[in-house]
């Protein structure tokens, strides 16, 4: 991986591959650059693809105090190393971030928003105080409890299932990036409904959901597509449990970028 330095001095780790028009991949909660690696590889033959670790996860650093503006600056820096302008694929809360970055003037050419959890349609809003409660748990030395809280109240996973997940082999890796849950909770509450400037983003946009995804996300995506000036809602086969079916999604991206 390579690294860049964001505006506030934070180290951001990224992987850049391929040649051609650039696509940057911004992922969601509990994700790092590997989440979209397969999807990026499918576009690599004729696109420059850049995946990165958002701050406080993977090989990226973190600098206090946090603000959504700092993450927009991170994404702007990644777009810069991608070639100065790029399409952005935003997955889950990365979709909220991508739309906010475009509204803030980051040189985005196209947007693909995959199951961004906007509180539209039937999808409920995240608790406004969730980020504060997560931060308090982490400050109290309870990062595992913060992960569990985000999974129940931020994602909607049943508490009984979360207790089972605590004993899974992957749990320590989630605890290691518990601080990032504060940031995802901030983004999905503060930007849980598109702001007027976000709603006015007039870029070619696809709002994508998987056919087998969680309840509420398809209705939210359809409402978002109606809200944006140049957007359409696309449903791809598969996508169980908020996952990304890479081949089908790559086909949608290729059509958007053609």
From TrEMBL:
Keyword Hydrolase: yes
Any Pfam family matching the protein: Abhydrolase_6
Gene Ontology MF terms: hydrolase activity
Keyword entries, A-Z: Hydrolase
InterPro entries from the UniProt entry: AB_hydrolase, AB_hydrolase_1, AB_hydrolase_fold
Record keyword Hydrolase present: yes
AB hydrolase-1 domain: residues covered: 23-252
Top-level taxon of the source organism: Bacteria
Signal peptide: none
Protein name (Swiss-Prot/TrEMBL): Alpha/beta hydrolase
């Amino acid at each position: 991986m390579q690294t860049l330095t964001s505006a506030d001095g934070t180290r951001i780790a990224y992987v850049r591959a391929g040649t051609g028009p650039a696509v940057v991949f911004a992922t969601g909660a509990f994700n790092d650059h590997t989440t979209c690696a397969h999807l990026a590889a499918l576009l690599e033959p004729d696109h420059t693809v850049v995946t990165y670790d958002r701050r406080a996860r993977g090989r990226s650093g973190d600098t206090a105090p946090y603000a959504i503006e700092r993450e927009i600056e991170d994404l702007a820096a990644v777009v810069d190393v991608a070639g100065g302008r790029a399409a952005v694929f935003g997955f889950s809360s990365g979709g909220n971030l991508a739309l906010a970055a475009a509204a803030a003037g980051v040189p985005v050419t196209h947007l693909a928003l995959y199951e961004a959890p906007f509180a539209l349609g039937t999808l409920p809003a995240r608790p406004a105080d969730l980020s504060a409660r997560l931060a308090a748990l982490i400050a109290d030395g309870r990062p595992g409890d913060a992960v569990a809280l985000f999974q129940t109240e931020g994602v909607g996973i049943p508490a009984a299932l979360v207790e089972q997940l605590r004993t899974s082999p992957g749990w320590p890796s989630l605890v290691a990036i518990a601080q990032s849950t504060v940031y995802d909770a901030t983004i999905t509450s503060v930007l849980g409904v598109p702001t007027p400037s976000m709603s006015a983003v007039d870029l070619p946009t696809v709002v994508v959901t998987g056919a087998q995804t969680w309840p509420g996300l398809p209705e939210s995506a359809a409402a978002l597509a109606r809200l944006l000036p140049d957007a359409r809602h696309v449903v791809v086969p598969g996508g169980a449990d908020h996952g990304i079916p890479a081949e089908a999604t790559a086909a949608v991206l290729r059509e958007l970028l053609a």
